[in-house]
Write a structure and sequence with these properties.
The chain is of the alpha+beta class. It contains seven helices and ten strands. Strands 1, 2, 3, 4, 5, 6, 7, 8, 9 and 10 form a ten-stranded antiparallel β-sheet that branches. Helix 3 packs antiparallel against helix 5.
Length: 259
């Protein structure tokens, strides 16, 4: 017994403090080795309909669906759309701008909804991510933002100039303002810049990940018809109202995925 105690004291006790770090190290090595050969894969599942708009945000596309990560977690850095027409060389890039509530209604909802700014997020293998994302054409906004500022300035000047004549019926006052020649000139410029037209549109959704840096794509098609164009152009007046901080709702298209 005494010999065993001497042996333990000499050979076993000194290595006891090393056992716990070795266990931790072994767990880390197991995790690292288990990750070898497992590549991140993001699956995109579309749902609902494709929402096409022309509003105070300019041309817009909203997509609804679910993202799923397979094998490894994925850090989603951004999502964008490459949009083109079937019968021309026209192409545009739409950047993600806001998350909308993931809700369902038998009747498409066109009223204002609470939006959340987009930001990068972690997509795990344990939890899928339901998305309802608004994509906008930032280049279009940059090119035509000055027209919105011009409308705001003209409306303020109109209100100050006609303060004695203005009524409590703000919609009637705005109608008078809207029919002025200088306002119609701005509308004509916006109408010339309006680029939705009847055609079949290809929409390539691209999900970007970091660490590793990869792209996962899914392609869709939808069709815009002549009557759809009329509906979107009816938004011009409401866009100007919203720019002037007046109540208004823009109309949107809710289109089927084209097969």
């Amino acid at each position: 017994m005494d010999n065993f105690l001497v042996y333990a004291k000499t050979n076993i006790v000194p290595i006891v403090p090393l056992i716990f770090p070795l266990v931790i190290l072994s767990q880390i090595l197991i995790q690292l080795l288990s990750g070898i050969g497992r590549k991140t894969k993001v699956k995109i599942y579309e749902a609902g309909r494709i929402e096409i708009g022309f509003s105070q945000m300019g041309p817009s596309i909203s997509l609804l669906g679910t993202l799923g990560a397979e094998k490894k977690n994925a850090f989603i850095s951004k999502i964008d759309l490459q949009v083109s027409r079937k019968n021309s060389s026209w192409k545009r890039t739409f950047e993600w701008r806001a998350f909308k509530p993931y809700t369902f209604s038998l009747i498409p909802q066109e009223e204002n909804v609470q939006l959340e700014s987009v930001s990068a997020f972690l997509l795990t293998t344990d939890n899928s991510f339901k998305y309802n994302i608004i994509f906008v054409d930032d280049l279009f906004i940059d090119e035509h933002y000055d027209k919105i500022v011009q409308i705001q300035t003209l409306w303020q000047s109109f209100r100050e100039k006609h303060s004695k004549e203005l009524t409590e019926k703000i919609d009637e006052d705005f109608e008078t303002f809207y029919q002025q020649d200088n306002i119609q000139e701005i509308i004509d410029k916006i109408d010339k810049a309006f680029y939705w037209e009847p055609d079949i549109y290809n929409i390539e959704m691209c999900v970007h990940t970091q660490n590793p840096s990869k792209k996962f794509k899914s392609n869709y098609q939808t069709q815009i018809k002549e009557e759809n164009i009329v509906k979107l152009k009816d938004n011009y007046k409401n866009i100007f109202k919203l720019a002037c901080n007046l109540k208004a709702n823009c109309k949107y298209l809710f289109l089927k995925y084209y097969e």
